[in-house]
Task: structure prediction
Amino acid sequence: MNDPKTNAAVTYGTYLQVDELLSLQQPRSAGPEHDEMLFIVIHQVYELRFKELLHELDHVRRLLTGDETHRAQHTLKRILTILKVLVAQLDILETMTPLEFLTFRERLQAASGFQSDQFRQVEFVLGRKSDAAIARFPEGSRARAALQKRYSEPTLWDAFLHYLAREGYAVPAEQLARDPIEPIQPSEAVQQVLIEVYRRDAKIAELCERLVDLDEGMQEWRYRHVKMVERTIGTKQGTGGSTGAGYLRTTVGQNLFPDLWEIRTRL
Ligand code: HEM
Result:
């Protein structure tokens, strides 16, 4: 079938908009410095992957809401595979030495991954919401609108708790009516439910394990990112204005779904 806009036959280039895609890598350094291309491409690839992750996370939330456990598991597996690739990609950037980064770092001015709204959107879906993250983006921007929309939406954890309740588990009413903008706090009653799930229901326990994989996968990314930052800029301040590695270390090791971790000692 021909392209409906131009009536020309669809090709690889037109379907994927390759010309447009290849015009988007615009180094800011004079020369330009050799390593800036790597830096730009890696970040652009991350943004595309974040887009795909959000697409899949929305899907898995919908599938859970529709009680489609098998498809939810399948989609979670895809999400986890993407996350593995996101972590592995840091290896490529780690081939850039501190001095190579310094050849163009000043050109970044205040730009930083800190300002990736899609990363914040992923955090919001997973229950780490923050007003401050929204306020950093200008009124009327795509980023701010996207974050505002996700701010009030139920998190993946909320969808999971409702799913458990529909499966007949005694999830407390206050957990089901939880305000999705609030942080996910450990709950003894939810832990009791999860212990029962693990002992009695291999299918749902498997789903829980995939959520733990997701939690661990995000933490793996944070850990690898901060190590990369340490080896590239040491303890220098970040371009985004934070203390750099010091700030990033505070974000490592925080569980997204605390109840799923708490129960392990008691199983
Ligand atoms: C040489 C490579 C990199 C360096 C030196 C670096 C450095 C930093 C620093 C210092 C911060 C803290 C905020 C700030 O003050 O700027 C930060 C945050 C962040 N960076 Fe990177 N980064 C690098 C590569 C990447 C890549 C490839 C990504 C992928 C998108 C990324 C995503 C992020 C995100 C999402 C944050 C916010 C983390 C949070 O607030 O929890 N960074 N980065």
